[in-house]
Design a protein that fits this description.
This protein is of the alpha+beta class. The chain contains eleven helices and 18 strands. It has a six-stranded antiparallel sheet with strand order 6-5-18-15-8-9. The chain has a six-stranded antiparallel sheet with strand order 14-13-10-7-16-17. A four-stranded parallel sheet has the order 2-1-3-4, with helices on both faces. β3, α4 and β4 form a beta-alpha-beta unit.
Length: 335
């Protein structure tokens, strides 16, 4: 047997191995170790490689370390920030990502129907779930000082009042009540919010100038609290879903709220409900506009605006270009 054949035989005969990248500040890590050990035994995996995130690196560097070690699976145990950072490293590698939610929002996990309140079930899915290739949003942004940065987004990114709301979220309240803290922040941010002017273009189409409160670029459309922001969003369709929020007054915000909590969630689910929307003009209102494409360019006219990714604040930007990296990430999901 040649040396090359021996290497192939050794690789085929070795037990697969996972890496668990975890946020040490989250509760439940000690119990998670026992749950993972049980899953390793059932699935005939070697003992997992455990790597802590740090304040300076929430996961990307650790995921690169795991890939270098030759693991067969990377499990992100933490909140949306940990998951997003790990995904940034796994993007395009073919190494599957397992999710064990330990955060408050857990938007990506919720949209993929990963159990957010049952760590044991989440671990089972990470080791034995179905591999699904999903899209990743790539955001190239320009800061007020003219510098450029690139980030990835798994759920949705936004520029405007949604980002201001997130930056105003009380961190202590968020630890106590989870995503409900965003409601408190929204109530405080809305009265002080001011629309901004932006030039936006989908793909290579015509540019449009609008006065908006926010523009969201999404991969998925479900938010906690029965909010179905983008009912037609699909995570593996190779398209971005763009939402333009442009209410003129408080009544316009009430119409948007009705849209995402009642019309999208309930009325659009039935033939009778869709007919009612057509009769009442619900599909023709301009407070919230849906667009789709492979890329979107945004140039802000005036001062820089707040920017957020997947529920985390990311400072202020003056311009952004979002593109879809289709089927770039493999995620373990329910069968």
């Amino acid at each position: 047997m040649t040396a090359l054949e021996q290497q192939a035989t050794d690789a085929a005969s070795r037990s697969p191995r996972a890496a668990v990248i975890f946020n040490p500040t989250k509760q439940g890590v000690d119990s998670l170790r026992a749950i993972v050990a049980a899953a390793e035994s059932r699935q005939h995996f070697a003992p997992s490689l455990w790597i802590e995130t740090t304040a300076d690196d929430p996961g990307k560097g650790m995921a690169l370390e795991a890939i270098e070690a030759g693991v067969d699976l990377v499990i992100a145990a933490g909140g949306d920030g940990t998951v997003r950072s790990v995904a940034a490293a796994l993007r395009g590698t073919g190494v599957p990502l397992g999710l064990v939610p330990l955060g408050t929002g857990n938007l990506f996990a919720r949209n993929l129907e990963i159990p957010v309140n049952d760590r044991a079930d989440a671990v089972v899915l990470a080791f034995a779930g179905l591999d699904r290739a999903v899209d990743v949003i790539v955001a190239d942004v320009t800061r007020p000082d003219g510098s450029d940065e690139t980030h990835v987004s798994l759920v949705m990114s936004g520029i405007g009042i949604d980002a201001a709301m997130i930056s105003n979220t009380n961190s202590d309240l968020k630890k106590r009540v989870g995503w409900l803290a965003y409601v408190d922040a929204g109530i405080r941010a809305l009265p002080a919010s001011k629309p901004y002017r932006v030039e936006h273009r989908i793909d290579d189409g015509r540019s449009h100038r609008s006065k908006v409160s926010s523009i969201l670029v999404a991969n998925l459309g479900y938010l906690p609290g029965n909010i179905e922001l983008i009912p037609d969003a699909v995570i593996d369709d190779g398209r971005l879903d763009v939402v333009v929020l442009a209410p003129r007054n408080l009544f316009g915000w009430l119409l948007i709220w009705r849209k995402v909590t009642w019309e999208n969630r309930v009325l659009r689910k039935s033939i009778l409900g869709r007919q009612l929307l057509d009769l009442t003009g619900g599909n023709r209102r301009r407070e919230i506009v849906y667009l789709r494409g492979r890329s979107v360019e945004l140039d802000i006219d005036g001062d820089a605006e707040e920017f957020e990714i997947d529920g985390d604040e990311f400072g202020r930007v003056t311009a952004a270009r979002f593109t879809v990296d289709a089927a770039a990430l493999i995620v373990r999901v329910p069968r």
